[in-house]
Write a structure and sequence with these properties.
single chain; alpha/beta; Rossmann fold; 2 domains; 6-stranded parallel β-sheet; 15 helices
């Protein structure tokens, strides 16, 4: 007979075990340093000679686009760093930069077990939940820095997602407002919060500009409209709320359809995805897209249909096109947004960059698509939203590297290196 442990209890036991091992490891290191001091006749012994100055951690290969511009800038400046990934097929492992050492550290708890004993000055990551779930702060790491992987909320993570970071890279004043509110509400230390912009969107914009030049040279003929359905995941997202009906109505339009589900859907909503993939197989007019890089899917689309996913802003703000966003009755109870006393910024932005899709308008989605594409009024709204959430356009990677380099310098002086 096997002993069953539910996931929640397993996570708690793992956290307790890691905490005990971490405490013992820390005590052992201190004893070793003291012993070295005694054996050296009272001379000062330099500790932490194996400390890594800068580590970048990614829990999935899909975030390589977030880190790539920062990695390129760091390497260009001659700053050596280690890139740790929990994906065995992460593009980073191809090691495109001379000052970057990329390593696969295992998946799931195996990765977190290594991170929990990491010996580093600074860790940069896009993974929320530090100190909340399996990933705990290592006593041998001086500073944890978070980089957002979308152009929207800091309050869009599950509760307490950023509480135990020391710094967060931001891209808009509303994010700073919400971050400071949550810190005050919870009575926690204020984080460093430099507004750097959005490095990965800067790169998308460069690629889009190059694509525009190519298309102008080719002078392509008018083609059938292409609709990109790009939902988030969870009970409030399109596929959970609208399911088969939205796919049936999109197919009726006769337009080309690209379906690009959130990668987490294939994990947390596997039964739904397996059923939809079987019921709606690929054809000349319908494609399922799971590319690690979303650029091709975004660039081919004449319009995007989504919900509250941050990819809405990747599409609208970079490609200057409106969106259709589904009325999904967003449940904010699992998220930091539940604590806010100000409106959730994403929902203040959506009606300025596109049209809302409701159950009542679903049956006439073709007309909604056509009118949204042709309406010139959204251009002003897109410009306004862009100014609110994408500061320092074109400078994101540089500003991120500036902050990291400055912090490494300060830590070096503090430790007498």
């Amino acid at each position: 007979m096997f002993l069953y442990i539910d996931p929640g209890t397993g996570s708690m036991l793992f956290a307790i075990l890691i905490g005990l091992i971490g405490a013992l490891s820390y005590l052992l290191k201190n004893w070793i340093v003291k012993l070295q001091f005694i054996l050296s006749g009272g001379k000062k012994v330099r500790a932490n000679t194996d400390k890594i100055p800068l580590v970048i951690f990614s829990d999935s290969k899909r975030y390589w686009n977030v880190f790539d511009p920062v990695c390129a800038e760091l390497s260009l400046r001659g700053i050596k760093f280690k890139y740790m990934t929990a994906s065995p097929d992460d593009p980073a492992l191809e090691n495109p930069y001379p000052n970057m050492e990329a390593v696969f550290i295992g998946e799931g708890n195996r990765a977190f077990a290594k991170l929990n004993f990491l010996n580093a000055d600074i860790v940069l990551s896009s993974t929320p939940g530090l100190g909340v779930y399996q990933w705990k702060r290592s006593p041998s790491v001086s500073k944890y820095v978070h980089i957002l992987h979308g152009a929207n909320e800091v309050a869009g993570y599950r509760m307490f997602g950023l509480d135990f970071y020391d710094a967060v890279f931001l891209s808009g004043d509303y994010q700073l407002r919400d971050l400071r509110f949550l810190e005050e509400k919870r009575g926690i230390k204020m984080k460093d919060a430099p507004i750097i912009g959005i490095p990965y969107m800067d790169e998308l914009a460069k690629r889009k500009q190059a694509l525009d030049l190519d298309l102008a040279a080719e002078n392509p003929e008018k083609k059938t409209k292409t609709v990109l359905l790009a939902p988030s995941w969870g009970e409030s997202a399109i596929l959970s709320r609208y399911g088969d009906k939205i796919l049936d109505e999109l197919i009726k339009t006769g337009y080309n359809i690209i379906i690009r589900p959130h990668p987490q859907s294939f994990v947390s909503e596997k039964a739904i995805m397996d059923r939809l993939l079987l019921k709606y197989p690929e054809s000349d007019r319908l494609k399922w897209n799971r590319d690690n890089d979303n650029f091709n899917a975004l660039s081919m689309a004449d319009i995007m249909i989504s919900d509250f996913s941050g990819v809405i802003f990747d599409y609208s703000l970079v490609f200057n096109k409106p969106v259709i966003y589904a009325d999904t009755e967003f449940d904010n109870s699992p998220y930091d947004a539940w604590w806010l006393e100000t409106p959730y910024w994403t929902f203040t932005a959506l009606d300025r960059i596109g049209e809302k899709l409701t159950f009542d308008s679903l049956g006439d989605i073709k007309s909604l698509i056509d009118s949204c594409i042709e309406d010139p009024l959204y251009a002003e709204g897109i410009n306004a939203v862009r100014s609110e959430t994408w500061a320092h356009m074109g400078e994101g990677a540089k500003r991120a590297a500036d902050y990291l380099a400055n912090e490494l310098h300060k830590l070096s002086l503090k430790e007498g290196k």
